[in-house]
Amino acid sequence: MTAPPGFPGSERPAVRPTVESGLDPFGLGQDGDQAALVSATGTVTYAELLDRVRSFMRRLGTTRRLVLIEAGNDVPSVVAYLAALAGGHPALLVEPGRSERHRDLIDVYGPDVLVRAGTGSLIERRPGTAHDLHPDLALLLSTSGSTGSPKLVRLSRDNLVANAASIAEYLRLRPDDRATTSLPLHYCYGLSVLNSHLLAGAGVVLTELSVVDECFWELFRSARATSLAGVPYTFDLLEASGFATRELPSLRYVTQAGGRMAPERVTHFARLGRERGWDLYVMYGQTEATARMAWLSPELAEQHPSTIGVPVPGGRFRLSAVPEARDVHGPDVGELVYEGPNVMLGYAREPADLARGRDCAALHTGDLGRLTRHGLWEVVGRRDRIAKVFGLRLDLDRVEQLLRARNLPARCVGLDDELWVFSDRPRTRDRLRAAASESTGLPASAIRVERLEAMPLTRAGKVDYAVLAEQGRRLRDRPSTGVRAGPVTATDIRDLYAMLLGRPDATVLDSFVALGGDSLSYVELSVRLGRRLGALPANWHMLSPEELVVAARPRRRGVTVETSVLLRAVAIVLIVASHADVIAVMGGAHLLLAVAGYNFARFRLPTSGLRARVRGVLSSVAQLAVPSMLWIGGVALVAGTYQPATALLLNGVLGSDGWTDDWQMWFLEALAWTLFGAAVLLAVPAFDRVERRAPFATALTLLAGTVLLRFLWTGLTAGPTERYTVGLVLWCFALGWAVAVARTRMQRLAVVVAVFVATLGFFGDLKRELLVVAGVLVLLVGRSVVLPRFAAGAVATVASASLYVYLTHWQVYPELEAAGHPYVAVLASLAAGIALWLGSRVATSGLRRLWSQRTCILRTT
Question: What pTM was computed for the model?
Answer without folding.
Answer: 0.54
